[in-house]
Write a structure and sequence with these properties.
heterodimer; B: alpha/beta; five-stranded mixed beta sheet; 31% helix; globular
Chain lengths: 153, 111
């Protein structure tokens, strides 16, 4: 099995849904709308749907804001639905992540001044499982799972 | 960004008539809030009961409005829907804002 076969690769298994979108914030909104109208998403419980929409919005708006900060581009979203939830793979051809690694995603501090940003990766890391990032040639490939949350009690 | 301002005594209630405050709408939300809160009022309550989706950009914009009103006025929130409530809770911003279950019930006389 090739090294790039972790989570998000050209052989991503059994894609149920694939959506290509221009990388801008309004297009991301439309993409999410299209995604959640798809048949395979209709039986997703409301809380899981809300979490999935939040995580996907954070990931894709980060791509718009950072990977493609120098110009236009596109985003390729692939989703596989299974009993536990969703497996997601998002590919773009923008700039690589700094250090070619995922941001740490610490919650910004509130001691000195209230933060107006820096929440995105914290939310992504808090709400996903099996989060992987790879720079593969000119591709950024991010994959993760979105499953039903464990009840806190 | 469709926001509706209503006055009740010294209370300014702003209702967000949008179902999302996201990266595409955060700047216009902030600008519209700045305009609507330009008139003096002691308290500002933002009714989010119609907002089903708020991402980190939307959260940042709400925090920006809180800072804009400080130190003389507070931004209070009301009617958080489940996904919006989750964003505030996970980021611990629920400890920064005064959050009311709904507006206006029990709010006008709760000082």
């Amino acid at each position: 099995m090739p090294a790039d076969n972790i989570g998000c690769s050209s052989t991503f298994p059994a894609i149920d849904l694939r959506i290509d979108s221009p990388a801008d914030t309004v297009a991301v909104r439309h993409l999410l709308d299209t995604l959640f109208q798809a048949d395979i998403m209709q039986d997703l419980p409301d809380d899981q749907r809300g979490t999935a929409e939040l995580v996907l919005a954070e990931v894709m708006n980060n791509i718009v804001e950072h990977a493609y900060s120098n110009g236009p581009g596109s985003i390729d979203l692939r989703v596989m639905r299974d009993l536990a939830g969703l497996e997601c793979c998002i590919i773009d051809q923008g700039r690589p992540m700094p250090g070619r690694a995922l941001p740490s995603g610490h919650l910004p501090g509130t001691e000195e001044e209230l933060p107006e940003g820096g929440f995105g990766w914290f939310l992504i890391r808090s709400l996903t499982r099996d989060l992987h990032y790879q720079r593969n040639g000119s591709d950024n490939r991010l994959s993760f799972r979105l499953d039903a949350e464990q009840s806190p009690h | 960004m469709n926001l509706l301002a209503e006055y009740s005594g010294d209370l300014l209630i702003i209702r967000a008539l949008e179902n999302r405050i996201d990266a595409a709408g955060a700047i216009s939300f902030k600008e519209r809030m700045r305009e609507l809160t330009d008139t003096p009022s002691q308290r500002v309550v933002l009714d989010l009961s119609q907002v089903v989706f708020l991402d980190s950009s939307g959260l940042g914009a709400v925090v920006a409005v809180l800072k804009l009103l400080a130190p003389d006025r507070k931004l209070e929130l009301a009617g958080l829907t489940p996904t919006v409530e989750k964003v505030f809770r996970l980021t611990r911003m629920d400890t920064i804002f005064t959050i009311h279950p709904s507006v206006p019930a029990g709010l006008r006389d709760a000082s």
